[in-house]
Amino acid sequence: MPRTSLSAPLSLKGVVIRDGCVLLLLNERGEWDLPGGRPNPGEDRRAALVREVGEETGLAVDAGELLDDHLFEVLPQRFVRIAAYRCVLAGTAGVVLSDEHLECRWVPAADLADMVAGHPLPAGYLRAIRSAFA
């Protein structure tokens, strides 16, 4: 039985857009991911997202509005609550990928449906990205 959204751990994700492209990171499960992570106890969500995006990508961002909130089954019967926010680049630096991900790509919005190199993009992430481009 899945855990409710209130009891599932929270992971904050950033939809980072540059020149009509969204930043996607390839994780160890072979799925495209959005940068982000878990907030520390008592940490403001947007501040935590800015910190996490910086740690995973080296990018400075400003976290904006909430785009999507959903439960994601990471592994069978293991759920995480995902809250995805629009992020605006606050600098001009390039991506410096952490060891948490295998690869990164700036993907044009038009190419999201076909996704890159056969790796899946979870439906909730796609919904948040489409919302950011709407």
Describe the fold and architecture.
With 134 residues, this protein is of the alpha+beta class. It has one domain (10-133): Nucleoside Triphosphate Pyrophosphohydrolase. 18% of the residues lie in helices and 39% in strands. The chain has helices spanning 45-57, 123-133, and strands at residues 10-18, 21-26, 32-33, 36-37, 61-75, 78-89, 103-108. Strands 1, 2, 3, 4, 5, 6 and 7 form a seven-stranded mixed sheet that branches. Strand 2 and strand 3 (32-33) form a beta hairpin. The model has no long low-confidence stretch (mean pLDDT 89).
Quick overview:
The chain has two helices and seven strands; from the N terminus they run ββββαβββα. The protein has 134 residues and is α+β, with helices and mostly antiparallel strands.
List the keywords.
134 residues; Nucleoside Triphosphate Pyrophosphohydrolase; 7-stranded mixed beta sheet; alpha+beta; 7 strands; globular
CATH superfamily: Nucleoside Triphosphate Pyrophosphohydrolase
Our Rg estimate from Cα atoms comes to 14 Å
Strand tally, please?
7
Q: Under the CATH scheme, which class?
A: Alpha Beta
CATH fold label = Nucleoside Triphosphate Pyrophosphohydrolase
What separation lies between the terminal Cα atoms? Answer: 34 Å
N-to-C SSE series? EEEEHEEEH
- The tally of helices reads 2
Can you tell me the overall shape?
globular
- Major sheet, described briefly? 7 strands, mixed
Counted up, domains total 1
In what range is the share of β-strand residues? 35-45%
> Helix amount, in percent?
10-25%
Structural class: alpha+beta
Low-pLDDT runs? none
Mean pLDDT: 89
